[in-house]
Write a structure and sequence with these properties.
It comes from Gossypium hirsutum (Upland cotton). By secondary structure, this protein is an alpha+beta fold. The chain has four helices and ten strands. The chain is globular.
């Protein structure tokens, strides 16, 4: 089952709502791939023995992993943390998240600076490229269990917008304008 993504409406309602335009404007996996966003659907019930996950980790060099439960009962200052995650930012490295349980939204900016909402659910592994403007929020379920993957030691530094002069942002924009090739095949 493929991931769902769509262009967001401009509503200021609760960030945990779907924010679909009317009529809905779906976004394809191909469009996400053009932005450098990669996707796989894996088996979250057997992530410890998943050969496909192992291949992805080896191919991309992800040697660090941890698990994160996000819900009001398990996170101190939950509402504040959620607001922080929802602040538009970039990272100097890829952001790799594998949803094991629950659901939430990653919002990314497209080439025209429009928000695309990506709904992740159990089994969805998503990779956001370094330098892409994005944010995260839970949906109305208020629960997600994520595997976070990193190259080397984990780095969680977020650089809030604007960051046009940040090296990762410059490299990302360059990759969009040059389009020398398609990222590693995902499905």
């Amino acid at each position: 089952m493929a991931i769902e993504a769509w262009f967001m409406d401009e509503s200021k309602e609760d960030q945990r709502l779907p924010h679909r335009r009317n009529p809905n404007e779906p976004v394809s996996l191909e469009h996400l791939a053009e932005l450098g966003v990669l996707y796989w659907h894996l088996n979250p019930k057997d992530y410890e023995n998943d050969e496909e996950l192992k291949k992805i980790r080896e191919a991309r060099g992800y040697n660090y992993m941890d698990l994160l439960d996000l819900c009001p009962e398990k996170v101190d200052n939950y509402e504040e943390k959620l607001r922080n995650f929802y602040t538009e930012h970039i990272h100097a490295d890829e952001e790799i998240r594998y949803c094991l349980e629950g659901s939430g939204y990653f919002d990314v900016r497209d080439k025209d600076d429009r928000w695309i909402r990506i709904w992740i659910k159990g089994g969805d592994l998503i990779i956001l490229p370094a330098g892409i403007y994005h944010r995260f929020t839970l949906d109305t379920s208020n629960y997600v269990k994520l595997m976070r993957l990193f190259l080397g030691e984990p780095v969680w530094t977020a650089y809030n917008r604007p960051q046009e002069d940040h090296p990762a942002r410059k490299e990302y924009i360059k990759s969009l304008t040059e389009k020398v090739g398609v990222p590693l095949a995902a499905h």
